[in-house]
Amino acid sequence: MPALKPTAFYGEVTYLGRVARRDETLRSDRMEVVLATWAGVAGEEHGGINRPSCSRVLAQHPRGTTIRNTRQFSILSEEELAQIAEKMGVAQIDPSWVGASICLRGLPDLTHLPPSSRLQSDSGTTLVVDMENRPCTLPIEEIAREYPEEARRFKAAARNLRGITAWTEREGPLKIGERLRLHIPDQRVWNHLEGTRA
Q1: How many domains in the chain?
Q2: How confident is the model over 43-53, as a mean pLDDT?
Q3: 96 in helix, strand or coil?
Q4: What gap in Å lies between CA 170 and CA 127, rounded to an integer?
Q5: What CATH number does residue 12 fall under?
Q6: What secondary structure letter does DSSP report for 23?
Q7: Which of 92, 88, 94, 129 is nearest to 111 (CA)?
Q8: pTM higher than 0.90 for the full model?
């Protein structure tokens, strides 16, 4: 039996972006097509096969340690962005403002897809889900350009709705309008977290 199960769930690509100048802005540039390479999106600031470790993995590595880059893509849900906007009291949150690589429509509860799930296009381009992308304060500056007062509400509003990070398993193009099929690990949920917190 395969270790990954194809599901009947698809996410339609409604946005593709690339953060080319992170030292200037987190805002991603809108693209019609991107090439998912072993290093992520070609020309992407968050790209690379490896990356320096950050605060997200301090329990595992000293800051700045070279580790595998499993954060090549920032993937968001169109529906979850709408929920964030509603909680903030604004008309919309454009995926470019939060540095999105991909925005998908139609995948329920995208932020909580099981780690190691796959998102695969009809042509075979395949991304592996790393984990939930926890909200941070970095997008606030970009959102404040549109909503100066409401931007400070972003981090709290985006809790459990900020999307996921992912990395390339199989290279290939990704295009606006195409669908990515969800494949999930064929295993039961691990329910042994009680007493494991340090």
Answers
A1: 1
A2: 85
A3: helix
A4: 7
A5: 2.40.33.20
A6: T
A7: 129
A8: yes
